[in-house]
Every structure is written in C-alpha cells, then in structure tokens.
Amino acid sequence: MTLPSFCYIMDIIKLLIMRGAKMRYIKLLIMLILLSIAAVGNCQNLQKAGETDVGTLYVDVDSVQSLSKSGQLYLAVFAEEQFTDAEFLKSLREDESLQNAVSAMYLYLFNNNGTEYTVAAHYIIDKDGKVCLDMGGETAVQQTKGKKEMLNVYTKALDALNKKAQQSKWLHK
Predict the structure, then answer these.
(1) Which of 125, 128, 159 is nearest to 47 (CA)?
(2) Angle at 151 between CA 67 and CA 30, to 5 degrees
(3) If you write DSSP's letter for every residue of 66-133 in order, what string do you get?
(4) Is it the case that residue 4 has pLDDT exceeding 90?
(5) Which of 43, 132, 144, 162 could disulfide-link 150, Cβ–Cβ 3.0 to 4.6 Å?
(6) Which neighbouring-strand residues pair with 46?
(7) At a CB cut-off of 8 Å and minimum separation 6, what does 45 contact?
(8) Contact, 97 vs 68, CB < 8 A?
(9) Three-state DSSP state, 134
(10) Helix (H, G, I), strand (E, B), or coil: what is residue 27?
(11) For residue range 10-39, what is the model confidence (pLDDT) as tens digits?
C-alpha cells in the first residue's frame, strides 16, 4: 500500500468519526490499515519512544494524523511494541494462536495537549507481520503524566505532524 492510499484511509476514518459512525466500521478500517502496514512492513518509519516492562516501544511517524470531532483536536498515531522479555514471550506463546507472536501494534489517540490518551486498537502481531489476536480498544482515558514512554510517543507524533505540515506548505507554494 502506498502512502497516499494510507492517507486516504485515514481521511475516511476522520469522516466516519466526525459523522458519528459506529465503532465497528472504524475498527474495520483500522484493521485494514494494520494489515496494510504489516504487509508493507518495510515502509514503516519507526522511531524509538522508550523501553516498556516487556519490550521496546516505537512510534510509526508516517502514520500520524490529526483528527477533529466537535471542535476538539486529537492526534492519532500507530506504535509498535517489540517484545524483548523472554519470560513474557514464553507465557504469551503458551496460547496456540500466539506461538509466533513477537510484537504488539497500538493505535493511540491523544488529546490536543498530550495530557490524556486512549488505546483505540491493540493487536498482537506474529513474526510474519500478521495479526494473531485483536485485543480490542479501550474506552478509558489514561493520563500521560508519569509515563515517559507515552509522553515520548506524543512528542514524536507531534513532531512528525509538524514536519508533515511544513512539507505540505512547501509543496503548495
């Protein structure tokens, strides 16, 4: 999948959110995006956000999008957690469907100042880049305060969005 078609899908998600679409349609589009990312794994532009309890968290800066709903701005970004903890991997792989699991993919939605976020989607990914398990999303809003990795995710995503805006300005001059 090329970047323009990825952006096209993100635009569709924005429209669905603005029009109050059912979450199942949005989840379907998110799944399509994740499958596309997995199929074109080399196209990811991952930047390290930090270490977690079980691995390393990376931000896919190419996936950053701004969303607006009811006058509120949100920042959407995909992140990948590559598992490095041997004990965690061992316990995770006890489930037959997760025997080849190596990472997790998240879709984070941040509020406009990065103080709060939610996990809109969470998937376990295998060594071939395929989705092993849909862990679903969370409706609970979480605070970024005291979570260095999440603050780094927000900062890197915001930087990437600013760079996209600058590039867009240059192209339209």
Answers:
(1) 159
(2) 40
(3) EEEETTEEEEEEEEEEEE--HHHHHHHTTSGGGTTEEEEEEEEEEETTSSEEEEEEEEEEETTS-EEE
(4) no
(5) 144
(6) 60
(7) 60, 61, 62
(8) no
(9) strand
(10) helix
(11) 666 666 666 665 666 566 566 556 555 554
Structure tokens at 96: 């037959």
What is d(CA 122, CA 133) in angstroms, rounded to the nearest whole number? 9
How far apart are alpha carbons 92 and 88 in whole angstroms? 6
Give the pLDDT score at 1: 33
CA distance 48 to 50: 6
What pLDDT is attached to residue 54?
A: 96
* Tokens representing residue 79 in the block: 């992140």
- Write the CA distances from 105 to 28, 68, 73, 166, 169, integer angstroms: 15, 23, 23, 28, 31
- Model pLDDT for residues 60-102, shown as the tens digit of each residue: 988 888 887 778 888 999 999 999 999 999 999 999 889 999 9
